[in-house]
Design a protein that fits this description.
The protein has about 550 residues and is mainly β. Helices cover about 10% and strands about 35% of the residues. It is built from 6 helices and 35 strands. The strands form 11 sheets. It has a 4-stranded antiparallel beta sheet, with no helix packed on it. Strands 2-3-4-5 form a 4-stranded antiparallel beta sheet, with no helix packed on it. A 4-stranded antiparallel beta sheet has the order 10-11-12-13, with no helix packed on it. The longest helix is centred in the first third of the chain and has 11 residues.
Length: about 550
């Protein structure tokens, strides 16, 4: 029996009675680095170690703290090379030591590298497993066949853990949301609203190379993903406005590049379908330029150089959102010389926001009349805080999560950077490692050739902020589980609290082994929840829509 999943689910159910907890980040507690040369734990299986094989890079494309297990997850994006190099997509599981008094984070310890796979016998987008999800662009992967088919192409950017322990991962190519088991095997794909899907002259086009005319812009799909405290709802946010939803001066193919209007898409987890969309307004380019008067952004950079990278739920209607520009220390600026304008965390509130599922945002670059966007207020100015501390601001601060509770009742807020694997490419697509000493010397060398003496690959950075006032209602773990709690009615409880399509369990009583034991519900192929009581030897039938029927006999030994 999966005790961890039981604990997760019971805690999710307690949210109606859990007390609100303080949250408001102001104080920088720590700033740390992970060397760019660090390998992950991917099995080589005879392959040569290298950037696209086992380099620990890009893995703060999103960041998630699993407080039930006291571990962190960092999801890597499509890998080095901007989608031109084959890369098995993966998530990194790790530990950090968080000082219980100051909130300082350090002592990074990698626990596991979990690759995303299509199980044997499962056909997904025309590809039958066993197969790995791959970061290569749909136009380049020969298994995909065509740019009109997403295939196995996968650019993970958002990551959360469900109450069941399963992973939900948002992807930019689709944009998509996939569910995986804790071992990385694919479970299901969520159904996407048609308006976000990329099209070129009316035809599907999932390439991140083509200049689509509607839907998500290339490399601007679901960059951020958040899960409600009860696990029943997901929120996915596009990184930037959709191609057609904006207004440009003299006509253009993608007027969304001039727009402030992003879409947040709400998903019902049990059904895997969307049921609402909300407008998130980016900070205006004119306001941003007041902070960088000597190197201002152009009007066309509003919806391209300013965007959203990560978000995390504070309760059932408030979300912390990471908004940033494309400047700072990174592969394009390995010495961190550019003037940074925006690395900020905002608090937004969905209450009162207009559902814009059926509303076009074309023809305007600001929220249209009659549409109420989400409310938004500044929570943390990350760039200003780092500059004040004498720290060069990294370009891609893309991971955001709320860490463990501290001794004084506050929390650590953790942010991390995507270092792009310290890889760049030239106009012809040739790949190079970017090396730097972070002081005044930098170079580009052949991929995996090693940096010159005194220089290193661009590291991954992570930082911690100590919290103050505010409210945070995510649950903390329950250390002990009581049988009285486990006696909840299984179907109603699973539907309300698990946030997963209920696999209906039916029983056939056995008289051969009358020993009483806990009755188990099925989620995926795993026994996840103790809810009622049955008899040892009882057969559980799992009715999973579209995937057939599976059975397993109960075992009292496993349940107790």
């Amino acid at each position: 029996m999966n005790v961890s999943a039981v604990r997760r689910t019971l805690v999710a159910a307690c949210l109606t009675t859990c007390a609100a907890m303080p949250l408001h980040a102001q104080t920088l507690a720590s700033f740390a680095t992970i060397p760019g040369e660090t390998p992950d734990l991917s099995p080589l299986n005879g392959a040569t170690a290298g950037a696209n094989t086992n380099r620990l890079g890009g893995f703060f494309s999103d960041l998630y703290y699993d407080r039930f297990e006291d571990v962190f997850y960092g999801v890597a994006d499509r890998g080095p090379g901007g989608g031109t190099i084959a890369y098995d997509t993966r998530v990194q599981k790790f530990k950090l030591t968080i000082d219980p008094n100051t909130g300082a984070a350090g002592n990074f310890q990698l626990l596991d590298t979990i690759q995303f796979t299509i199980p044997a016998g499962v056909t997904f987008n025309g590809i039958t497993g066993p197969a790995h999800f791959n970061g290569i662009d749909p136009t380049t992967d020969p298994l995909n066949g065509t740019r009109t088919n997403l295939g196995r192409s996968h650019d993970p950017e958002g990551f959360v853990v469900a109450p069941s322990g399963h992973f939900y991962v948002s992807d930019e190519y689709g944009p998509s949301i996939f569910e995986f088991r804790a071992d990385g095997t694919f479970v299901r794909a969520f159904t996407q609203p048609k308006n976000v899907l990329p099209t070129l002259n009316g035809q599907p086009d999932y390439s991140a190379i083509d200049l689509v005319t509607a839907g998500r812009v290339a490399n601007r799909g679901y960059e951020a993903l958040a899960i409600s405290p009860d696990g029943n709802t997901l929120y996915a946010m596009l990184q930037d406005p959709m191609a057609q939803e904006g207004s440009c001066p003299n006509g253009c193919t993608q007027p969304g590049l001039y727009s402030r209007n992003l879409r947040i898409v709400r998903f019902d987890v049990p059904s895997g379908t969307s049921n609402a969309q909300f407008l998130y307004p980016l900070e205006s380019i004119s306001t941003i330029n007041e902070r960088v008067p000597n190197s201002p952004f152009t009007a066309a950079q509003q919806g391209a150089s300013i965007g959203v990278s990560s978000m995390t739920m504070l309760d059932n209607h408030r979300i912390a959102v990471d908004e940033r520009d494309n400047r700072g220390l990174g592969v394009g600026d390995p010495l961190g010389a550019a003037t940074v304008s925006t690395k900020r965390v905002y608090l937004i509130d969905l209450d009162g926001a207009t559902d814009i599922s059926g509303i076009s945002l074309a023809g305007t670059n600001t929220p249209p009349a009659g549409v109420q966007p989400v409310s938004k207020s500044l929570y943390l100015d990350v760039a200003a805080t780092l500059v004040s501390a004498g720290i060069k601001v990294p370009e891609k601060i893309e991971g955001l999560t709320i860490g463990p509770k501290l001794n004084d009742g506050t929390y650590a807020v953790i942010l991390g950077t995507d270092n792009d694997f310290s890889v760049t490419q030239n106009a012809s697509g040739a790949q190079f490692d970017v090396c730097t000493d972070l002081t005044g010397n930098t170079s580009q060398v052949t991929l995996d050739a090693g940096c010159p003496t005194g220089q290193h690959l661009i590291p991954t950075f992570y930082m911690s902020f100590k919290t103050g006032v505010g409210q945070y209602t995510q649950p903390d773990p329950i250390e002990q589980l009581g049988l009285a709690v486990l006696g909840l009615d299984l179907p109603a409880y699973a539907t309300a609290a698990l946030g997963y399509p209920l696999y209906v369990a039916e029983t056939q009583q056995s008289t051969s082994q009358p020993t009483a034991c806990q009755f188990l519900g099925y989620f995926g192929d795993e026994v996840q929840l103790a809810g009622q009581y049955g008899l040892e030897g009882t057969t559980v039938t799992r009715l999973a829509a579209g995937t057939g029927v599976a059975t397993r006999s109960l075992s009292c030994g496993a349940a107790q």
